[in-house]
Amino acid sequence: MPPFITAITTRDARFNLATGEGTDSNSSSDDTVQWAYAVCLLKTDTGDLKGSGLAFTLGPGADLVCQAIEALSKPLLGRDIEGLMAEFGRIFRSIADHPSYRWLGPHKGVVHLALAAITNACFDLWSKSRGVPLWKLLLSLNVDEIMAFLDFSYVEDVFSEKEARTMLQEMWPSRGDRSHILKTGYPGYDTSCGWLHFDDDGIVHKAEEAMKRGFKALKMKVGSADKERDIRRAKLLRSVVGPDVKLMFDVNQEWSLSTSMEMCEALKEVNPFWIEEPTQPDDVFAHQALVKAGYRIAVGETIPNRVVFKNFMQAGATHFIQVDPLRTGGISETILVAMMAKKFSLPVIPHVGDMGQISQHLMLFYHIAFDNEVIFLEHMSHLGRYFVHPAVVSDGVYNVPQEPGASSDLRDDV
Asked: Is the pLDDT score of 47 beyond 90?
């Protein structure tokens, strides 16, 4: 008998970072950055078995997401998890299109973050109820079961259910060829060396540490008020790591299009692997102009849903898709975006608001199920100690998680 959902609660979990950590172009120099999760907890009639789903915020506002979770999750009460997931695509759309709360989005902002937490809790409970890690659950599903949890509304003009089904079926016979990733683990890259308000000595120390831990790719924050500071710091980081380490630069949407053009050109000297979120994230045409100018662009951290991702892909406005399961409507929408990216030959390299906890599972599924290119997965360790089963990275590589669930349980004592 599958477990039934008997109660739904929330948790507003906030964590202060150390000085300088988490700072970007939206932070002032004296800020103490706070990261937070709005948590959806699905309690069941089966002992202590529960599903834990996360949405990522920057502290204040997590309470609003929790309120939205409480309002939107009511259709899950009394449902058994197997029956729920057998029609989750329909349930997802019905929650997203709530006749009143839809007005607060639609499909973006607080209500869509709440849907992310709800969705992620369902997938966590589903995999726990079957006694397997999320990646193993997803790989065990047949094509019909995968299709049942996807919502194709508003993207079927570009990526139809028929195309998705065909993609999964055609890739199925070669899954074994890609399953070696379960033995090697998934490569990571380090974001923790280049926060915007680290001083030069801090950057050098953190970069050297990251390389000692086996990382072969690092990311730095840019978007300072002083553009020359960005360029100097980028050159410093390149001088520390040498020519063979990949470097990415994250603007956090700070620049106008004209400044983006100027700075992308200036940063060419340090050979960036990508420039991330160079300008306002809704401005598809500005990103398209940067791509046409020859700059390698990555987007996704603040793109809220599959429709906006569709627009970026249609317009050829990015090279890398950074879809985050804690920012879109959760795991199911993230999987659909990743499959759509495969159609457009765009690699998925998520932003990890989850600290890689859930994303480490999804990347294994993306590669084995439909051959997403293995490049690397972002790693940030700042909140790892607050999880029951923190993601483990050894020699720059994510170990394959083995515990049942989506690795999304926070410790009760923090």
From this structure: no
What Cα–Cα distance (Å) separates residue 5 from each residue in 90, 117, 180, 236, 300? Answer: 18, 15, 36, 53, 32
Instruction: Confirm if 379 and 395 have CB atoms less than 8 A apart.
Output: no
**Under a CB-based contact definition with an 8 Å cutoff, are residues 134 and 124 in contact?**
yes
How far is Cα 23 from Cα 32, in angstroms, rounded to an integer? 8
Question: pLDDT tens digits for 210-232?
Answer: 999 999 999 999 999 999 999 99
**Distance between CA atoms of 368 and 184, rounded to whole angstroms?**
13
Of the candidates 351, 367, 379, 389, the residue annotated as catalytic is 351
User: Does residue 336 contact residue 119 with C-beta atoms inside 8 Å?
Assistant: no
Q: Annotated catalytic, 246?
A: no
Confidence grade of residue 251 (pLDDT, cut at 50, 70, 90): very high
Strands (E), 252-400: 272-276, 297-299, 320-321, 377-379, 393-394, 397-398
Residue 216, number of CB atoms within 10 A of its CB: 16
Task: Please tell me the distance from the alpha carbon of residue 128 to that of residue 142, in angstroms, as a whole number.
Answer: 18
> pLDDT grade, residue 30 (50/70/90)?
low
> No. of H helices and E strands in the chain?
16, 12
Q: What are phi and psi of 25, to 5 degrees?
A: -70, -10
Two structure tokens written together for 49 = 């078995």
Would residue 221 show up in a list of annotated catalytic residues for this protein?
yes
Q: Indicate which residue of 107, 206, 219, 221 is catalytic.
A: 221
Q: What is the pTM of this model?
A: 0.98
